[in-house]
Design goal:
About 40% of the residues lie in helices and about 15% in strands. It has 12 helices and 9 strands. The protein is globular, with a radius of gyration of 20 Å.
Length: about 270
Amino acid sequence: MGLGREQVGRAIRARTGVSLRGYDLNQSPLGKPRIYHLLWKHVDRVHTLSDALLQRASQLGLPAEMPVMRIPPALDMDLFMRQSPLDDLGDPLRILTMARLHWIKGMEYCLEALALLKKEGRNVRYKLIGSGGDYERLVYALHQLGLQEDVTFQDKMPHAAVPREMEASDLYLQYSLQEGFGNAVLEAQALGLLCIVSDAGGLPENVVHGQTGWVVPGRCPSSLARQIRAVIEMPREEREAVRRQAMQRVKQGFSLEGHRRQWNTFFTDEN
């Protein structure tokens, strides 16, 4: 949104802030490394969702002396408060991903990992919720992998319906090639889902490996399958501890109240 509006702040004699977002830093600049060169010259303060996005902005020319404030997403805890009992894994294991159907979300690697687990005799069901241009490619992939009976697609849903869908699942995957932070992963942790994410972008800042979920190398279906297998086979009390730690961390560190305080500081601090 800053492109073509770089000098609006100066024209109206106002200070200018910019918020760093995943798509704008990871995809828009492809082949255009100086896309934000003029924007950086007219910015007074920058907001970032994650340290990974800030590092990417620096690679695109953001000056090192630029005032920056890291404010991750926040959740409405009244909406994302688990209503159903926190049961152990189901049979079949119910896996969920909520994301737009786009190559950068790494869903084909998830399908390949699922195929590896199926060859071992694991009883797993995978649900993909979202819309996008890669739907036909993903359907073709699951037919090639023999997963027609194991994978279902559903169009994107109203945000208010997300908690109910998540509570009906055991495991949440976000195996993106790049991700600014990952709001859905935060929501999944708040509702007590076991989360496995890739090491892309801000995801390792979202999930604390081994404590609130697991972070595995991206673009590697065998690594993803290995971690899912490890989660299935670990003692129930260990899984329960991860669930509880994830829920507590989100409640303490990602509330709307704290979010408002941080944004007030962003807009009022004169430094």
